[in-house]
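Anyone up for a design puzzle?
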């Protein structure tokens, strides 16, 4: 079993096949210092295809679909991003964005830090996009906006950007806008001359917005998305919340032996809610279609809502196949399997 390698801050949201109740959240985005409206600020539910932008008066209105638990993100270049978690439908939000002085004044240090620029980019692409066929079809459209630094003492490669990183995923037909909060690759050992890199962990966090590309509705794209979905964290969580792990093709192991999943995973309906509470009684191994993963929870209980969105996301860790899934294999929370 592979060691748990990284934490992926993703949430999971499933839109049911039946019609859901659509409502709106509206507001006004202003500069905190001048009280002037900010035009073209991005407004979106994190890791979904649901988003909009402010008009010339700083106003916005975004559709809310019942069951969404993703944070609402308000973002504009040169300002500190605002994230609203406990939003209410029908409430009007006056959002004051604060200018990000650090981002505007940051000086990029270009001195030699022990890792050539192209090698940093190569390492970033691999660990950010992934290793699958989906990942190989991805292109980062604005690599020039990346700020990559290597710390020789701690053997850590970090990445940041003043602008959202734009990823074009040809295979899954998404344009993904990813705003990096943290990105760190921690190495156990590096030998640049021999091109050998031994990684301890990869941790990245941020917010993302998905835009459908021209061929999103093609049969080829639908097939690729459905194939990506099967065996993903999103698929696993939805199956777990419905107690359908075995029906969906998952086998659970503990101590090297196949076990009844629900002797080691306690799934209980939350009173007055369609969400479930999940208690993981032990570290578990997961087998799906001959691909092995590991799962560990660092909290006594985590929640999965009616669409498969789990929280707290960063406290549920995956290793192996699921742990190696990166941005190139990611699907938006509102992804729905084609019937």
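Challenge accepted. My sequence:
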């Amino acid at each position: 079993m592979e060691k748990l390698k990284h934490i992926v801050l993703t949430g999971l949201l499933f839109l049911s096949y039946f019609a859901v109740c659509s409502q709106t959240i509206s507001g006004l985005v202003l500069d905190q210092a001048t009280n002037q409206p900010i035009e073209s600020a991005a407004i979106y539910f994190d890791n979904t295809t649901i988003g909009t932008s402010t008009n010339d008066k700083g106003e916005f209105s975004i559709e809310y679909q019942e069951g969404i638990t993703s944070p609402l993100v308000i973002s504009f270049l040169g300002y500190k991003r605002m994230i609203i978690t406990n939003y209410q439908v029908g409430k009007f939000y006056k959002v004051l964005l604060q200018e990000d002085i650090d981002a505007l004044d940051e000086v990029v240090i270009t001195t030699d830090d022990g890792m050539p620029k192209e090698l940093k980019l190569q390492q970033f692409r691999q660990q950010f996009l992934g290793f699958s066929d989906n990942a190989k079809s991805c292109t980062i459209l604005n690599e020039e906006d990346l700020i990559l630094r290597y710390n020789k003492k701690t053997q850590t490669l970090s990445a940041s950007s003043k602008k959202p990183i734009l990823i074009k995923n040809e295979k899954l037909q998404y344009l993904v806008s990813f705003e990096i909060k943290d990105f760190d690759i921690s190495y156990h050992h590096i030998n640049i001359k021999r091109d050998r890199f031994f990684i301890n962990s990869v941790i990245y966090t941020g917010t993302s917005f998905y835009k459908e590309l021209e061929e999103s509705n093609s049969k080829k794209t639908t097939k690729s998305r459905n194939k990506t979905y099967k065996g993903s964290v999103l698929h696993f969580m939805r199956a777990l919340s419905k107690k359908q792990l075995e029906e969906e093709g998952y086998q659970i192991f503990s101590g090297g032996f196949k076990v009844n999943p629900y002797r080691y995973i306690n799934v209980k309906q939350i009173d007055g809610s369609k969400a479930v509470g999940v208690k993981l009684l032990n570290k578990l191994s997961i087998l799906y279609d001959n691909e092995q993963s590991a799962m560990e929870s660092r909290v006594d209980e985590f929640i999965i809502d009616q669409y498969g969105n789990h929280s707290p996301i960063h406290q549920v860790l995956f290793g192996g196949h699921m742990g190696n899934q990166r941005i190139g294999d990611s699907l938006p929370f509102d992804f729905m399997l084609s019937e």
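A detail worth pointing out: The domain at 22-104 is CATH 2.60.40.1120 (Immunoglobulin-like).
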